[in-house]
Amino acid sequence: MKIDGQAAIVTGGASGLGGATAEKLAASGAKVAIFDMNVDKGEAHAKAIGGAFFKVDVTDATEVQEAIAAAEGLHGKARILVNCAGIGPPGKVVDRDGLPASLEVFNTVLNVNLSGSFNVLSQFAAALHKADPVGEERGVIINTASVAAFDGQIGQAAYSASKGGVVGMTLPIARELARYGIRVMTIAPGLFLTPLLETLSEEIRASLGAQVPFPSRLGDPAEFAQLVGSIVESPMLNGETIRLDGAIRMAPK
C-alpha cells in the first residue's frame, strides 16, 4: 500500500519510536492522527508534522472508539495503524526486602502494552473491515513488541510478558483479518535512543550501544520508522515479527 494520501493513526506518537513514525508517515504524504496521553508533546508534534492530536488512553475502549471516529472525520478512513504506546517499569518477582512483586504494577504493564494494543487494533479493524479496498488490501496494522519478548532480563517479567503477548497474537490476528485484506505485523526493536534512554549519561548510552554487535550503537527512532514505511509498502509482509536489533541478544542483566 502506498503511504501517500492515506490516513494513519500512531499511538504513543508524541515522542520516541511513535514520534519518529508519525513524522515519517507524514513526510511520506499520510494524514496522521497521534493518539497519546502527553498533551503538550502530542499537540506540538502534531502541529510540527501537519497532523492532528487526540488525548487517548489506549486501555479505554470508549476513548479509542471516539478518537478513531473523530480522526476519520478529519482525515477519512484510516488505513494504517502503528501501535507504539507502552510502558516498562522494572520490577523483580521478589524485591531486596524479600517482598513479592506488586500484582497491580504487573497488571498495569500488561494492560497498557498488551490489552491496549489489542484494544486499538480491534477498534481500528472494526472501523475498517467493510471499507472499499485500496488495490488488493484494506489496511495495515503494525504493533510494537521488543527483544525483551525473547531475551527478557531480570526485572523485566511484566514487560517481557506483555511484549511476548504482542508477538503471540500477531499470527492469529493476521489469519483472522486476512479475509478483510488487513495485514498485521509486529516489530521487536532492540536498544533504541528513546526518551527513557535520553535521560542517561552519554557514558552509559555508549556502554549500552557497545553491546550491539553491529552497528555498535543505539538505534535511531528514524530507523524504526523506516521499517514501518517498508512494511506498509510491502504487501507480502504479514503475520510476522521482525527483530530490529543489530543482532543483539540481551544478557540476563
UniProtKB/TrEMBL annotation:
It comes from the Bacteria. GO terms for molecular function: oxidoreductase activity. Keywords: Oxidoreductase. The keyword Amino-acid biosynthesis does not apply. InterPro entries: NAD(P)-bd_dom_sf, Sc_DH/Rdtase_CS, SDR_fam. Pfam families: adh_short. Belongs to the short-chain dehydrogenases/reductases (SDR) family. This is NAD(P)-dependent dehydrogenase, short-chain alcohol dehydrogenase family. It comes from Lutimaribacter saemankumensis.
